[in-house]
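User: For my dataset I need records formatted as: sequence, then structure tokens, nothing else. Please produce one.
Assistant:
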Amino acid sequence: MTAETGIDQGRSAFRESRWTDAFKNFRDADQLGGLPAPDLERLATAEILTGDTNSGLETLTRAHEEYLVVGDIVGAARCAGWMGMQLMHLGEVSRAGGWFARGQRLSDELDGPDSVQGLLLVPVGLGKLYGGDPAGALEVFAQVADFGQRFQDKDVSALALIGSGQATLMLGRNDEGLRMFDEVMVAVTAGEVSAVPSGIVYCAVIGNCHLAFDLERALEWTAALDRWCRTRPDMVLFSGQCQSHRAELFRLHGAWTEALAAAAIAQGRSTKGDPQALYGGYYQQGEVQRLMGNLDAAADSYREAARSGYEPQPGLGLLFLARGDVQQAQSMVRRAAGVADAATRRHLLPALVEIELAASDVEAARRGADELAAFARECPMPMVRAVAGQAEGEVRLSEGDAVGASQALREAWKLWLELGVPYEAARCRVLIGRACRALGDEPSALMDLEAAHTEFLELGAAPAAAWAASLMREGADGNKGPLSPRETEVLRLVASGAGNRAIAAELYLSEKTVARHISNIFLKLGLSSRAAATRYAFEHGLAG
């Protein structure tokens, strides 16, 4: 094969998004006779997309230098800009700043304006965005948009629009920001935007849809990202982020085994060329582990997520609450909410309300619930209304307004069911049971608590199942509680010190059946050992 043939085949593969083939052909052509700067830039992109980031950055440096040799200042500045962005994603801030400065110096040498100047403004806008100045970021991204429009540069226009949408969301203007996301996704899904900016847009849009509680949009665009990644099976960059988004949706919809599997894939991809998948892969894993009661494992996952530079909130605060350290949970969530931008703060408010109520600060919880209610009036999407209604119901319960609590909680419960979010629906059902009990309707209270208990058991949410079971016992007045008659008899024998074989002989059961009964007892009662089960049996009058 000649160098010319390799270049032609590399260009063809690149156009068709066959990144591995593009890489191989360009590499072979480079070894045979070298590559011109535009093809070195394509080779670098193929290397980065397939996970060979170090080689990709080396090749992009060569492309930059080759552009300088042939006097193409625009090409050299563009390579400098993308070098800076890649290094910024890798957390190499100083090197990224050096490349941005070089790109800016080169753009200052241009005889007239060019779209590359818009590209080099993107990191300036991001700096303001993540530095707590969304209004300033919006001004910068407006300048980026002007360059994109003037020079018909679809990539620059897409980056301007996604940045403007994020800034608008941070300013609290949800509807306007979400419309910007829809607009930029039209260009991306139509194939008007090149691969790397497309991946950036996909992942930013989905992450911000979750932040804005727009579950329907998040689901739609995650499915689109999944299709985009599947048509590019050798692509590593962005594929890990896709898996972390899938993990979040699986978690919300109660498919926790699938969520853990997707999170594990995201973690693997984060070390193979998609570093932005690190946070989501570990945070979503931690969320499932926390809900299942694996608190030590969840703590480890949150710790790994924090290595990304992002705070694992509100999960970490809720973990401290689950461990019984209410004061630390309260301090943590108050601090996080106090320094957050408007969009992130709203995402933290449901946990803040739950933690403040656990700390018996009803006034602080009321303020959080009122913020969510105001947000729901401004942006009445189903998930926002569900979150706001649930918080309102929780606070009204603590304020002694069981009637108002019941109304708010039943509306939230219906919304969670429509959204297909079973864990939150079951939590609402528990709170509804408490409201019924406060109103003197014990039979209805038990029905709601039993329904929630069953749902928690099916999900594998052991702590929540134990919570529901404890509330069932509170009003049972001698009722057998959450255990079946057979499970109660097995528990009595466990408390007597009998082993599984002796229990099986006593009750004419197989040892396998006895083991299953004991497992169910542990899960229903939130216990983890025979000693704890024995203690429970004596405390509740179930021992022989």
